[in-house]
């Protein structure tokens, strides 16, 4: 498992950036450390580390799933990740349009609002 954790940490840093991962690590406590290990090994060391689909496609799928399920808290983080994964603004818009049709306009609308805010912040940074 150490190898999967190490690979997950590497992939997580490549997608989310060192600053984000450093903040998450600094905020980690003994209470949530098992959860952090789980997502590092499972999400980042297994799913995101797979070469089955491109990081660009993973970004689009992740954003669409977050929006479709109403998990809006992580959308800004994954919008920021598109700068590293290669998913363009057009790609993100297309993903959210699919959400509108298959999961509902209100969820897609909220996701687009968050994306617009996050892109505006990114342009000012």
UniProtKB/TrEMBL annotation:
InterPro entries xrefs: 4CMD/NDH-1_regulator (IPR052512), AhpD-like (IPR029032), CMD-like (IPR003779), Decarb_PcaC (IPR012788)
Entries under Gene3D superfamilies matching the protein: AhpD-like
SUPFAM superfamilies: AhpD-like
Start and end residues of each Carboxymuconolactone decarboxylase-like domain: 35-116
Pfam family, one: CMD
MF (Gene Ontology): peroxiredoxin activity
Protein name, UniProt field: 4-carboxymuconolactone decarboxylase
């Amino acid at each position: 498992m150490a190898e999967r954790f190490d690979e997950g940490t590497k992939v997580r840093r490549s997608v989310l950036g060192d600053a984000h991962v450093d903040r998450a690590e600094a905020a980690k406590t003994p209470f949530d450390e098992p959860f952090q290990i789980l997502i590092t090994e499972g999400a980042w060391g297994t799913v995101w580390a797979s070469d089955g689909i491109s990081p660009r496609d993973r970004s689009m799928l992740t954003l669409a799933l977050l929006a479709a399920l109403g998990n809006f808290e992580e959308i800004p983080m994954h919008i920021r990740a598109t700068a590293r994964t290669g998913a363009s603004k057009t790609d993100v818009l297309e993903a959210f349009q699919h959400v509108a049709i298959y999961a509902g306009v209100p969820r897609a609308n909220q996701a687009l609002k968050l994306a617009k805010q996050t892109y505006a912040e990114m342009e000012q940074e």
